[in-house]
Amino acid sequence: MVANRWNDTEARKVTAEAGGDPADQALAVQAYASCLLGADMALVQHGGGNTSCKVVRKDLFGADIPVLHIKGSGHDLATIEAAGMPAVRLEPLLALRALDGLSDADMVNTVRSNMLDANGPTPSVEILLHAYLPHAFINHTHATAILAIADLPNAAEVVQDIFGGKVGVVPFHMPGFDLGKAAAEVYEANPDVEGLLLLNHGYFTFAGDAKTAYDLMITHVNMVKGWVARKSGKVLKPSGFADPAMQAKAIELMPVLRGLLGERRAQFLGNRDASMPVMNLRAGDNVQEFFARSDIEDLATRGVATPDHVIRTKNYPLVLNAKTLAGGADAIGAAIDAYITDYTDYYTRNNARVGGGKTQLNPVPDVAWIQGVGIIGMGANGAIARIAADLAEQNIAAMSNGEDCGGFYPVGEADLFDMEYWSLEQAKLPSRNYPRFAGHVVMVTGGGGAIGLATAQAFANLGANIFLVDLGEEALTKGLAALGPDHDGIALDITADGAAGKAVEACVARFGGLDVLVSNAGAAWTGEMIGLDDALLRKSFELNFFAHQTFSKAAAQVFATQNRGGQLLYNVSKQAVNPGKGFGAYGIPKAATFFLLRQLALELGPIGVRVNGINADRIRSGLLDDDFIKERARARGIDEGTYMAGNLIRREVEARHVADAFVALAMAERTTAHVMTVDGGNIEAALR
Known about the structure:
The strands form three sheets. A seven-stranded mixed sheet has the order 3-2-1-4-7-6-5, with helices on both faces. Strands 14-13-12-15-16-17-18 form a seven-stranded parallel sheet, with helices on both faces. 47% of the residues lie in helices and 14% in strands. α20 (473-483) links the parallel β13 (465-470) and β14 (488-491). α6 packs across α9 (210-232) and α6 (144-150) packs across α16 (382-404). It is globular, with a radius of gyration of 29 Å. It has three domains: 8-232, 3-Layer(aba) Sandwich (L-fuculose-1-phosphate Aldolase); 244-426, 3-Layer(aba) Sandwich (L-fuculose-1-phosphate Aldolase), CATH 3.40.225; 441-685, NAD(P)-binding Rossmann-like Domain (Rossmann fold).
């Protein structure tokens, strides 16, 4: 059952913190209720749903005016604050109801013209429905259980069976003027109802206070969950992790699929260097139970549980069955091409139906159902892929429950198209002007260290999804915390047998593939070569050469499978060309890595893989810690700042400068076999 998370103490606290104005108090407590709803993915997912409250405020002349505070479009209920619920004068909205029709443009203009703060976020497109219901507090969700009955052919009978007249049923309309009027008419026909089921869409509850409106939502959703369980005789299992065999299948398949999708996306965009999608795999028991059904290929053509899904998942998933998978890359490519043809035909006929003028969206699928593997959400970055996967999981739950309770029949093609290509719905999405490295998966070894983390952050700032590799769990955890959500990593010893394969497989399982390997990890041991212990030299070679080689090999295998190029970037060292006294154990394997870089550039260039590196010097990281800097400065009779700025430009070189150089090499699309010096100027270490 869905938990009721309302806490009277917390509610009183947020009310008190809002101050003495009753309007501010009401808004604060409704924002609190909104966060409770948004935090539960069984109720609301990724910007879906909306909430409102009606209050009285003063205008500039001191007159009382009724206003409606409503969730701003694109805001997330899970984190919404009062500022995310703009205020709109209520009376002009109510006056609109007298019209026979209202265009979207006129609705938006009227709403924005009546905002108390013209700079506030755009109010939800469902504002008129909230306005036309008389209640002070209104909540709207797309709860999974509700969607299971909202798409039933006999939904009205089911609602009567469950609620006995306490819930009204509203026919499907696009959000906006018509839906607002229809909902108001259903309510006014029976003012005793406590909620409204919007067919093929979602659910509303309302009351005179925030707590009651919230309680009703939880109670009603749980009543529906109970009915579905009794009717179907089963409950879909919750999400979970794939077993090792399933994970292995996914790791083998995802780079193949990613490369093929990237190629098709490039063809559509007319840009051969267009990025591949980032992927998010779901392969738990819930997915496998769904794939065990005999009707999934039929269900795949039915559509989405609520039209709100379509802007993130498209109208249908790409289905790859066992026969297709057995045919390998050629068969998978043919299935993708068939999907693109179907989507293009769907666009063409519906664009003609609405009189033209719509620009076709990318026809490559956003969700794949892969039997025996899992569900994959896909998108221009990790966040978009995760959201698509979340919605796909909700969709299969609603599909299964709905089909087992009488039939899953969501809105048809025309309504789906109208929602997918509706400008007000598209406005909910983040800008498609993605940063330079959106769609790129970047692995950084030694990712918790100074240079590694700075490099990871530099790529992340430009849209990349990062996979950190570090020896220590603590360093890894801190690094990922600094990067924020939708990045990942693994803690392991990169010199151990099989470490490179394990790390790269974990990256593929998390993001679907790999685009850039920043082979950065290293450490320096000191000592004169004549007296150096052989074991120490071998240890240095394991970290400073062989780890670079094994990770390069594992990454190159993924690049070859994706067939879309890739990049290897190395943190070499000025020691590779300018040996320092006592640093032979470090410089010799680094020199070998220098040659490895050139050799791999030669060998991998024909498949589009670029290989470049950085020669840095005197960076505060690893061996060059504060104590070492102090010792070296004392030995030379200078202060620490002068020692660190011992270069031609007399400025210290920092980790961020190395990071910027890695990014610059990654953006140099026709550069390979190049080593860039980042040392502030050291003639002895200059390259030819």
